[in-house]
Structures
1.
Amino acid sequence: MTAGRASDALPMLPTLPTLLAMLALAAGTFLLRLSGPALRARIGFPERAEKLLEVSAVLLLAALAATSALTEGHAFTGPARPLGVLVGGVLAWRRAPFLVVVLAAAGTAALLRAAGVP
């Protein structure tokens, strides 16, 4: 075992330009998040635009859930995972407790896979 240099043991500290860039990005992120509530009282959207924004958020979440439930990589996951998600979705729709929803969805997929369903 050879003794390394002292600089090998120390973590590399960010340079001044990197640190300034990180601080600028942090400030920009904070200001962008703060602008939503600040501008909400001053800027009004038409009712139709507000409805479209609400629907688009729901559609985006549904598309994300469908993509992650149905695919793994570039292939179909098999029926076990979508059926587990379906069971969880039905329970969530029926307003079951979150823990019950998660355990039922995972249990359904696990039981189907144990039974040989891919």
2.
Amino acid sequence: MDTAPFLAYLDGRHVRWQLTLDQCVDNAGDDPRARLLAVFDALRAWAASSPGFRSCALVNAMVELADPQHPARSVAAAHKRALRARMLELAEATGTPDPGLLVDQLLLVYEGAIAGHAVGSVEKAEDKAHLTARRLIAAATPYPMDTFWVGPEPTSW
């Protein structure tokens, strides 16, 4: 199998995701908590803009390619590490005492939302992940919650 086209596809997916993420972070304004939450704005935008959105191409590649030495696995892992690094940078700006822990918690919610959406086990998984992330960020940061908690919580899904 010629891996070059597949690696190019994965890189393209990452570049498109990065553009979506950058736009959402820019649109979030100056509040560092909103900028971190923008990762979940990007997830919602990504899912809404991708007809037939089923899952994460990077995770799918890692699952499908059993050979741990396959070059696509290292490409996918590098892209996931880049997301974590970006989130860590955003989390550090929030003033949370443990930005690494907050990012790990948010990544679990993020990846869980993708999986829940993919298998259909969680209705409106991206919206619920967004709300969960907002709660985690609000609880982990030293600012008054009401300055970040804009808008009512959904009463029904």
